[in-house]
Amino acid sequence: MPKIKEKRMEELPKLDNTLVYTEFDDENPVPKGKWNSHIFENDQPIVLELACGKGEYSIGLAEIEPDKNYVGIDIKGNRIWVGATEALEKDLDNVRYFRCFIDHLDQYFEEDELDEAWIVFSDPYIKKERKRLTSPKFLETYRRVMKPDAVIHLKTDSDLLYEYTKEIIEQEGLELLDDEPDVHKNRPDDPKLSIITYYEEMHLEKGKTIKYVSFRLGS
Fold first, then answer.
1. Which residues are catalytic?
2. What CA–CA distance (Å, rounded) separates 206 from 219?
3. What's the pLDDT tens digit per position in 1-42?
């Protein structure tokens, strides 16, 4: 492991806005059902950024919507460190970073504890449909912790993931809320969609089109 990565991994659990739960033990209890009362100490809606990488979107959204709590989730601690330290530098009280496995969300959050989720430039897993974060498998995972009227947002450069997600929305009879095939052409002034991550900037430089779809999760 490179020294800088090793240093970041050592620092990560010590950051005031970061939680690490890759293992379970009595000395490190999961705040399940206590995110509002114990972690954020308010009753604002809780929004996830799934596979958050360096957490740029969590930070951008938290700045736009200070009346919501944001939790960036990823298993890559080295990347989370980047977002967590930036959030601390910006003194953002409504952002936390959480190193854990997305598959196990119901071990970390209580039923109906979450209000919304963003999936931004996640891996489309071309040959592994079940690993896509909008697959029926993951939608069922989200339902165990999210409110029935929760909204899922997908922003992606992947035609495959974009079309696949719309197919799943139709197959499951979910409510499609928004469908934008070219974000930067048609919605340049939308503040939430105008947040540009490191990966998005790379995609744009390659001439890729950025797509967005949102839907209601349903029960």
1. 123
2. 39
3. 578 888 888 888 889 999 887 655 556 678 899 999 999 999
